[in-house]
Amino acid sequence: MGWIYIEDLKDHIGESVELRGWVWRSRSSGKISFINFRDGTGFVQVVVERSTLGDEKFKSVRKLPMEASIIIRGKVREERRAPGGVEILAEDVEVVREPSEPYPITKPDHGIDYLFDRRHLWIRSRRQFHILRLRDKIIRAIREFYWDRGFVLIDSPIFTGSIGEAAGNLFELDYFDYGKVYLAQTGQLYLEAAALAFGKVYNLGPTFRAEKSKTRRHLIEFWMNEAEVAYYEHEDNLKLQEDLVSHIVRYALENAMEHLEFLGRDIKKLEKVEPPFPRITYTEAVKLLQKKGFDIEWGDDFGGDEETAIAEQFEKPVFVTHYPRRAKAFYMQPDPDNPEVVLCDDLLAPEGYGEIIGASQRIHDYDLLVDRIKEFGLPIEAYDWYLDLRKWGSVPHSGFGLGVERTIAWIAGLEHIREAIPFPRTLYRVHP
RNA sequence: UCCGGCGUAGCUCAAUUGGUAGAGCGCCCGGCUGUUAACCGGGUGGUUGGAGGUUCGAGUCCUCCCGCCGGAGCCA
């Protein structure tokens, strides 16, 4: 009788097995008890009969509270009446540890604040089980995508000097005698260095924004996947993003259907996400918004409502390209046909999930980049090594950043991005 | 930071115009051999977020503070 996991039960029908895990919920009558049992890989119903265990043992087992840790030995059998179609008929129940007080998360009717105060326990719940396992699979899909295309993983640093997109939203720390350093809000500049060394590179890790954002689309600490490719221009960049996002969605449909179904996701909407994605220029988007009655002028950036209004015109994610250069970061390559706009794109997810990718072709000309750093009022001395990249072997190159939690929230159909990460850091929450 | 909303039992919520603070769940005891958020009977449970004020009387009205939720700006 060997120890197995719930996820492998279907290969052991008719066998006697051992499962190690926890009581999720239980119901009982005088002679039969049902335990909803979990072991981290899934949930299964265990049937405990008084006639099998004996009066005394049955009495103690039927009283086991939620989150008692137990080892079950019993026979696996198919059973129509059991959730999932398979159940365990217990032959023995060994109690590892019984809780000393009632488990605080009972029925699914707790408030969001209560639950996040107990996030360390809440992640045991079924909904969180499915969301966080879906996250695991989406990250697997991202890594697989790059591995299959010969990209090299280049992890960018978390501690950085004063460098990046904007100074106003950086977390500042003391770094021994060096002085102030900052938590990374992007690894892009490092990936640009790496692209000139390895050709095709990507990263995947946490980034930090000291923005007092308090919406369903924002986290203070969030994970980003960035990619950068030497010799890629704007059009190549769009194609890569399109391929990545459709790969992730297809992977989820093929490998995570169990989670999507539990979460009640409308699968049909995800099945439509296949290349090519629609494209609209910034200028066209402004006209579209004006026609819909938005008070917006050429040159303004889009807010959440504007993004949603654009995205709802399409069933797939939509690229918005060629933004005004003043609305975007200093390093973006001007459009040769119109230098007032840059070769960039935002990818907007459908159904109001907002921007999941920000992307651009980067300036590769030394003098132009210096001009832009000055124009944006940035300290040129902080960009010494970044400018070096334009001195030696500079080539056109492009890249993007994918917001991992926004992507998960969209694919899972979540109301709020905070459920898409195990321990979210939001404006007023760093505990647990 | 700004705008709006909400703080009542361990949890989720009720409480007519200002007039005796309640229910369901949880927990404890008992019953039930197929439960699916099991069900049935009994029991347990309160400084109504805090401080002050108005009033014969405040969960309810006023002021300040604290906490949370939603949104805006900013962004992935």
Topology record:
Layout (H helix, E strand, L loop, with lengths): L15 E13 L3 E7 L4 E7 H4 L1 H8 L6 E10 L7 E12 L14 H6 L1 H4 L3 H23 L3 E2 L5 E2 L11 E4 L3 E5 L4 H11 L1 E9 L12 E10 L3 H22 L1 H6 L4 H5 L7 E3 H10 L12 H8 L6 E4 L12 E2 L2 E5 L1 E6 L4 E9 L3 H10 L8 H8 L5 E7 H9 L20
Parallel strand pairs: 3-5, 6-10, 12-13
Antiparallel strand pairs: 1-2, 1-4, 2-3, 4-5, 7-9, 8-9, 10-11, 11-18, 13-16, 14-15, 16-17, 17-18
Helix pairs in contact: 5-7, 5-14
This protein binds one RNA strand of 76 nucleotides through strand 1, strand 2, strand 3, helix 3 and strand 11.
Number of strands: 18
Number of helices: 14
Runs in which pLDDT lies below 50 for 5 or more consecutive residues are: none
- The N- to C-terminal Cα distance equals 39 Å
Whole-number radius of gyration?
26 Å
Shape: elongated
| Biggest sheet details | 8 strands, mixed
Q: What structural class do you assign from the helix and strand content? A: alpha+beta
Strand content: 25-35%
Helical proportion?
25-40%
Please state the average pLDDT score: 92
Q: Strand order, biggest sheet?
A: 6-10-11-18-17-16-13-12
Protein architecture, described:
The protein is of the alpha+beta class and 432 residues long. The protein contains 14 helices and 18 strands. The strands form four sheets. An eight-stranded mixed beta sheet has the order 6-10-11-18-17-16-13-12. The chain binds one RNA strand of 76 nucleotides through strand 1, strand 2, strand 3, helix 3 and strand 11.
